[in-house]
Amino acid sequence: MRTRVAIFAVTFLLLSGVYAQIPSVQINRENRTIAVTADDSVEVAAEIAILELGYHSFAPSKDAAYDDNVRTADLILKAIAAEGVPKENIQTEKLLLRREEPEENRTGKPKPPQFETRQTWRIRVPVRQAQQLVDTAVRAGANELDDTQWAVADPIALQGKAGAAALAKARQVAEQMAKGLGARLGQLVYASNRAPAMSLWATGMVNTMQTTSASLSAKVEQPQLTLYPQKVKSEATVYAVFAIE
Q: Over the stretch 2-26, which tens digit does the pLDDT of each residue have?
């Protein structure tokens, strides 16, 4: 019996701690309030591009594969630096050196072993510089371009705009409810903002580019890659309690 009482007491304390974080609304004649939950979002033009560029190669020996990758990577990084990109805006994303297991060819004999190397970087630049940087890196030897992300310089400000939009919507809903009750909406008593988790690198809210966001132009003589920046979207859900008069 004592064990059961102890378990019940611990469980009660744990649940009390959880529910203490959620404000409770007392339902009685003295409490004249309206509680509303509303969500909204805000979209703005991207200000920052986060590019993932790299070099991927194969060679018959480990040393040859390693040397080739290091040499080409050095050329790529020097070309990127020449575009004015600071080192703190470059991160190593992937680094790979491995031996591929040989497979049998059509004659039944095993193929010669191959060594695979890959080196990729995430590079953060202003949107206006993204196009030129991709072209420069590819000319320097980059042969991989993965998902591009679009960001804003101040994600907190964008989140604040989304929260304000959600709160305005909550007030509109509460006003309609108050009219239906034959009352007038009063002051805001309580509000909370639940925002989705943000994907950040160097304080930037980001949206991932779909594969259709980059394309090659139709010019046959000199095809060029074209980037189409996405809008950056921030969402917010607001729980608000208003007094009614």
A: 444 333 333 333 334 333 444 565 6
- C-alpha pair distances (Å), 98 with each of 113, 116, 128, 147: 11, 5, 37, 24
Provide φ and ψ at 74, rounded to 5°.
Answer: -65, -40
- Tell me if the domain spanning 48-149 has CATH number 3.30.70.2970: yes
Q: Is the pLDDT of residue 198 over 70?
A: no
Q: CA-CA distances (angstroms) from residue 147 to 7, 45, 92, 210, 214?
A: 51, 18, 15, 7, 10
Alpha-carbon span 216 to 224, nearest angstrom = 5
Whether the CB-CB separation of 133 and 125 falls below 8 Å is answered with yes
Domain ranges of the chain: 25-47+153-245, 48-149
Asked if 171 and 44 touch (Cβ cutoff 8 Å), the reply is no
Q: What pTM does this model have? A: 0.67
| 146: DSSP letter | -
Render pLDDT for 167-195 as a digit per residue (tens, 0 to 9): 999 999 999 999 998 999 999 999 988 87
Q: Identify each DSSP E strand in 87-128 by its residue range.
A: 90-100, 114-126
Residue 227: per-residue pLDDT: 78
In angstroms, the CA 34 to CA 90 distance is 50
Write out the CATH class of domain 25-47+153-245: alpha beta
Convert the pLDDT of each residue in 141-171 to its tens digit. Answer: 999 988 889 989 998 999 999 999 999 999 9
User: Closest Cα to residue 153, out of 126, 184, 191?
Assistant: 126
In b/e form, how buried is each residue of 219-243, taking b as 16+ CB within 10 angstroms?
Answer: eeeeeeeebebbebebbbbbbbbbb
Distance, in Å, from the CA atom of 85 to the CA atom of 107, rounded to the nearest integer, reads 51
